[in-house]
Amino acid sequence: MTRHLLLPVVLAVVHTASAQGLGGLWPVPQPVFTSGETSLLISKDIEVTLNGASLVSSTNHGSSSVSSSSLVSSGVSRALDNIFSSNFVPWMLVPRYKLSSYEPALNGTIVSIDSLAITLTSNNSTFKPTAADADESYNLTVTEAGEAQLSSFSSTGVLRGLETFSQLFYEHSSGRAWYLVNAPIDIQDAPTYPWRGVMLDTARNFFPVADIKRTIDGLSYSKMNKLHVHVTDSQSWPLEVPSLPELSAKGAYTQSQVYSPADIQSIQEYGVARGVDVYFEIDMPGHIGVVGEAYPDLVVAYNMEPYTTYCAEPPCGALRLNNSNVEDFLGELFDDVLPRVAPYTSYWHTGGDELNAQDYLFDPDVNSNDTAVLQPLLQDFIDTQHTRIRNAGLNPLVWEEIVSTWNVTIGSDVVVQSWLGGTAVQDLAASGHKVIDSNYNYYYLDCGRGQWITWSNDLAASDFPFNDWCGPTKSWELVYSHDPAEGVTDAATKSNILGGELALWSETIDSQNLDSLAWPRASAAGEILWSGRLDDSGQNRSQIDAAPRLNLFRQRLVARGLGASPIQMEWCTLQQNASGCAQPA
Amino acid sequence: MTRHLLLPVVLAVVHTASAQGLGGLWPVPQPVFTSGETSLLISKDIEVTLNGASLVSSTNHGSSSVSSSSLVSSGVSRALDNIFSSNFVPWMLVPRYKLSSYEPALNGTIVSIDSLAITLTSNNSTFKPTAADADESYNLTVTEAGEAQLSSFSSTGVLRGLETFSQLFYEHSSGRAWYLVNAPIDIQDAPTYPWRGVMLDTARNFFPVADIKRTIDGLSYSKMNKLHVHVTDSQSWPLEVPSLPELSAKGAYTQSQVYSPADIQSIQEYGVARGVDVYFEIDMPGHIGVVGEAYPDLVVAYNMEPYTTYCAEPPCGALRLNNSNVEDFLGELFDDVLPRVAPYTSYWHTGGDELNAQDYLFDPDVNSNDTAVLQPLLQDFIDTQHTRIRNAGLNPLVWEEIVSTWNVTIGSDVVVQSWLGGTAVQDLAASGHKVIDSNYNYYYLDCGRGQWITWSNDLAASDFPFNDWCGPTKSWELVYSHDPAEGVTDAATKSNILGGELALWSETIDSQNLDSLAWPRASAAGEILWSGRLDDSGQNRSQIDAAPRLNLFRQRLVARGLGASPIQMEWCTLQQNASGCAQPA
Question: Considering the entire predicted model, what is its pTM?
Fold first, then answer.
């Protein structure tokens, strides 16, 4: 291979190409990302080493067992697959019919990258990270001489760096080469927020395992690290629990819509391999009416009507409080489930949103809707369940109402998920809670598409035009405008705000529209959560700077098999930030 | 085969099943649809006859040539494929784990349908229908003895009847049988409006031929009959015109995003075979700036900035008026294109929306933005193009501004497409125009998902929360609430309202989200346009009655390969119109 620099005319244009976005990454690395104007190829026979030892060729997909080196090895294989097999020719990201000015000539004089040296400085495999101890930082350099080096303290950091590395490259229009346009590259990258996730509701509508794994792919490509599976709700119980088989046998929508223990393990392992912590929520004591299909004596107000009196959405139903049978049931449930998920995650979500006091008028052990009566019972309930979570080696999460509505005292290890908007996130953090932000005004990706409730003609007139409760649609720009810690100056408060999760409540989402609703809008939040809301100059990141890179990233998502929606028409992607597509100040 | 009626216990339940929607059709047949409670199987060896002659077996897909009998033959093959190969087990449409109560027992005593006798009473093949002369009516009966008869005046009517026939059947959970639940069936069905379509914009984003054909599938399943392809706009010219090759060579986004003459023919033939008239629009004299890529002297204001002064969306650009080179160009364009499409359609759309007078300040032959100067030039322009359209044997269409903004006099054969809402449709019809309704407040399926224009931080504050111009999202309920002729009592005015078209402008739509945005919302309008806004009792059709059938129909769309969005969660589809899913008066 001739290591010969090619610099003149073409590369002056490549500079423009870089400005057009061909040198763009999503999320943008920070604090350091410098790049040049030199194009390099990458060899299909690239040699990848880990701490000096040859690791993997592009045809070796590595082991699936969980260790630092195996995580790195399989990560390398996937990155090379994404470069060589799931890449794209970026004609849609350069001016019409000008691609030849942007991609390098294959004249034998261009340098190829034929080695990637990975240094993992710790042996800690972070396949079971908690928000506090996960280190996802990495350094990546690519010289004009074609030497690529990636180093990190953790295998997860290496995975993040490999994702960045893979995003540097394009397929050449000849189909015979793959290239980058912006060497030399120097990246020192680390996340702003440790918690960057998506919540998927598999109870209102079911999602096959393949959908969940594809969602994990999208998260990892976006350098996001949490998949929160809201696995049950009052509508269905798709989670197979071997010690309580009736739960899914009677509560799943159908026996073809069940997650077996092997499915759960497979999903979690898939996440671990990609640096995505998959954790689960069994919402309680509300949002769990479906338990009544198998164990009617354990719940109250199941499918009680009118639902608006007893819950937020049909069917209603809550676990009885102060009931030993419920506690026996939950003991058995958690004894079954928690040990199986604990090897792969540090979290378990006990829910706790929208509990309706009216339900407990029907609870023979309670017979009251008085919060003064209910609160101590709920305190005991939460204490008991959280002890079980902790005993399994996991940290509990709750929805914010447990704290803000019910004044339940929770442990300092509990992460509070906030969705109600306003100042809730900051208030919770200021009062000492660890918080993740799912503000429905910004992060509810299901919103703004109309109602799933239908209305009689008499009622329809007053409900016209049939909007859902949380419109407008959260466009990528709206998602991108949000920073969980915006305006927070107190350091302790700020450090309590761990990050955020985009929510995909699934009343009108299933396999058919999951990808187009999730992506790239979740990725828009992914950049804010990784790179921060402020750019190098301390200003809010601009939609105008972001759009070309998000157009590029969306093309990568599509090339890699995710059905992500376009954010602009091709005329805009061809002429990134052309007048009209972008409105400068 | 034992023709033996099976009536007792199971079939009493089947009545409930029918109420649950298993006997539902979309759009609902009218004026006559009666059905019973008897389940029948359908034989895979069903013999289908056309006017007494054996037509096709389920393994013979028929000829692709265009004749009444070949249209019927291939329609039969597709209907049988949809029944036997692209069907579904309707577990999601009956109460949880109650499917066995709804599907027939395969005990050898149940009657099978083993013949379908089709009667075509006219030899007119309506593969080139116009709104005035297409007859899509049909009669369909299925007796309890398993005799199926379908008759129509036209091959298109037979196709509509075959669609209905195919929608009667479900796959049995055994995988070994297919059945209906509601014999005897008597249907006399005919459309309310003759024009029931979708407009797809292939210029803002390109759609591969497969996407267009799949859209035709969705239209035919919805008994809709028009696909209006807005094939060019100022952004791109994907239409290959052999006599003017530079148009697409320079104006397509890329050479992989071009419709060849063979593609166009293939799309139209695909439509003809399915009773869908595919017609095209080359929008002019505005919305055509891209011609300037190949012929800069023919357009003015191409990509002029700020775009807001010169057009509605970048890039601007309009054909020069009063210019012989433009007329020569258009003569050559139409001489090439029109004879190729005319065998398959009766229409050509010359556009005419959003023409901006400011553009003509830059036209050396005009030098004016005075509508008094421009109007007669536009009149001549329209007259000339419409003469060309007519000379090719086609009827012109225009957007409403040609009439309502520019006071251009158009022929009585011209169909006016209205999008501006308010009373426009009714006003145009009252003044004697044939009108189709694309009211943006109801029928713009792209709306309500946020902006594609990006904003600097300075401007973003005033643009928050980044809504597009035409929100909210047009939910299926909103689409379904609209009747183009609502409130019109004058018979002549009413007859001028031909129907409507749902619009899919593609600034933020491409292959990845086309299906989920188009379906089943377009189908919701399809029912109103076919079955009418009023039900048998003269009341507006209710969302509550419609939702179970639309849930069912959406499952069919998915089973047949369209990525249609869910309109409700499975809990609602399982318990159709359960409390909470439906709010009765």
Answer: 0.95
